[in-house]
Amino acid sequence: xxxxxxxxxxxxxxxxxxxxxxxxxxxxxxxxxxxxxxxxxxxxxxxxxxxxxxxxxxxxxxxxxxxxxxxxxxxxxxxxxxxxxxxxxxxxxxxxxxxxxxxxxxxxxxxxxxxxxxxxxxxxxxxxxxxxxxxxxxxxxxxxxxxxxxxxxxxxxxxxxxxxxxxxxxxxxxxxxxxxxxxxxxxxxxxxxxxxxxxxxxxxxxxxxxxxxxxxxxxxxxxxx
Amino acid sequence: xxxxxxxxxxxxxxxxxxxxxxxxxxxxxxxxxxxxxxxxxxxxxxxxxxxxxxxxxxxxxxxxxxxxxxxxxxxxxxxxxxxxxxxxxxxxxxxxxxxxxxxxxxxxxxxxxxxxxxxxxxxxxxxxxxxxxxxxxxxxxxxxxxxxxxxxxxxxxxxxxxxxxxxxxxxxxxxxxxxxxxxxxxxxxxxxxxxxxxxxxxxxxxxxxxxxxxxxxxxxxxxxxxxxxxxxxxxxxxxxxxxxxxxxxxxxxxxxxxxxxxxxxxxxxxxxxxxxxxxxxxxxxxxxxxxxxxxxxxxxxxxxxxxxxxxxxxxxxxxxxxxxxxxxxxxxxx
Lengths: 225, 334
Fold this sequence. Notes:
heterodimer; A: alpha+beta; 7 strands; 36% helix; disordered N terminus; B: alpha+beta; Enolase-like, domain 1; four-stranded antiparallel beta sheet
């Protein structure tokens, strides 16, 4: 683990392949100003997202229009009153109405697991869920895992183990992992974890690192509780 | 996804009256089949009756030893129930072999019974499919018919397998499906619930329009039985069966006193192999009797261009399951 350093700003261990001098330079400069000057557009957008510290504001749509249903969703601890059409899918409502785009739309058919989130602490495919069916439910998305700047142990472990390549499946993988690690009915051995995670497809094939991350996080979560 | 009217029901009676006898209305439970098929425009309900708030979440042991499962008990909850694990191991194993953690968390007992076929020609919305569009033909019979196509119970109209693992275990255990409908409540024997395709593959089950499954009641477990589910598939997890077997057996010494055998992945409905069971009764355990019974289970099987391998594979699913179960010395009854 000698090539892992504690990155104080994020409170996590990160892999730093750069030379110490470059790293010092980055810290002196302030990573954000440097990134803004040199990073491609997508990285600046990602960084802007990371800098957003405010939780999502409670949303209240007021009276429903004809053909809409009024529902209450508590998402990451914030209660929203939303008006949705009966065919509105939970995944789409979270992404398009509440702008919680961390939950991904992959296959949109319940086959890939990219849309996995927790409803009342149970992992489900949000692409196969009508928003109206979840009136009154408590929903946890990837955005709700961290405590301020402190990432969830599973997020830290995914980072430390490089448990992704393109990253598109990652939030679903992490949500499944969180549910599995909190579930006493699922065995702690590698085979049980692989089976329990089989609903999360990783096209890049980062399964080995994902498994390592889940098992690493298990130790950290047990230590914390 | 197409638009539909939506109503949330608070009681089975209210659900039934909201649904009425309309062929265009659909009950919504876990949604893992319905919403999938609505999204790809294969099912086109104009009204969805959400039954998720109904009080049908219990697993109860009845006085006569049977076990009554509420329609909305999830596949996860059913698989984990101690009574199911101890007395109906085959059912718990079958449930856990199906789908994924997330899907099992949503999918319900009744919804699993109502699962639709996975034939790609049914799902693609354009190929000939008598199930989707009666009279249009069956693209699978002369098409790619390897993985989700049957060798038992097929017809010239349809060869799609029933995809459920849970139902295979229930077929072996024996069960009753209780439904509530516009004409009141009635019970349907589990083996009568799913229909062979015959000339009407669009009719998949014995429900009348508007009928709602409220419970599935398992027969009392065979005393001193041991049971198991063996699923053979293309990959280790998250795949439909190429062939599977649900076996329940009782022994006295080395003699089989009772046996139940059901098959998945090879039949157009959850397939109870009654003749194979008869052949096992009274026989000594061993490869000879198991192989003989397995052969009988596939008597009359019809192979298609790409799935003939399912006949020996299905036979092996029976032999291996029986071999494993009867080798468990500590659970012998004698």
